[in-house]
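Section 3.1 - Work completed
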Amino acid sequence: MDFRRVYDRRRSASDRWLIVYACENGLPHRRLGMSVSRKVGPAVVRNRLRRLYREAFRLTRDRLPPGLDIVVIPQGPDEPSLDQLKDSLPRLLGQIARKLGKRT
């Protein structure tokens, strides 16, 4: 996945837990990328957040619009619950899909 292409498309949505960027990828499936800054904390904290966000993506895949490249950026070092992420990710991607003109 090309992160620059996703960022250049400038389609994003955010809430208290994460910032989500997305753009079309021309494929029948979704692709996930994560950008976790060192400002979030040491490697242990960053890796924990990556695992948590990846699991939320896996569990909500059927509720997400297909054909998107998605970049997820944590908003801070606070760790959300898995349930909060499972609610947040589909909602934010739905907002972006509407901006892109995709069906959810």
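Second construct:
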Amino acid sequence: MENHTKETIFVVDDDQGVLDSFDAILGDDYALHMVDNGRDAMEFLSNNNPCLLFLDLKMPRPNGLEILEWISARKLPTVVVVVTALPQDHYEELARKYGVYSYLRKPFDVDDVEGIASLVLN
């Protein structure tokens, strides 16, 4: 598995606007890698070890919960933050079952994203 510097952040979301937001918020300070689907996310995680992953839940298959299950089964050391518009507490409970670091609801607060990145990566 290829190792990255501790500043590497991986963002998975099928909404280009969300990816653009992450780039605007974190792109100047951290190395970002972003994909817009679960299949590419799993391929990237098979070969790379990002320190921090911001993961959307509601995407075409594999969706974010399936990716969380896949990460958990492989015991990947990546810190995972779920970022979703799904309002049901049920999804948060499922995500926490897989050991997510934090659960952010869209629209997310810029300060929350910056704060998590700073805490995890510094």
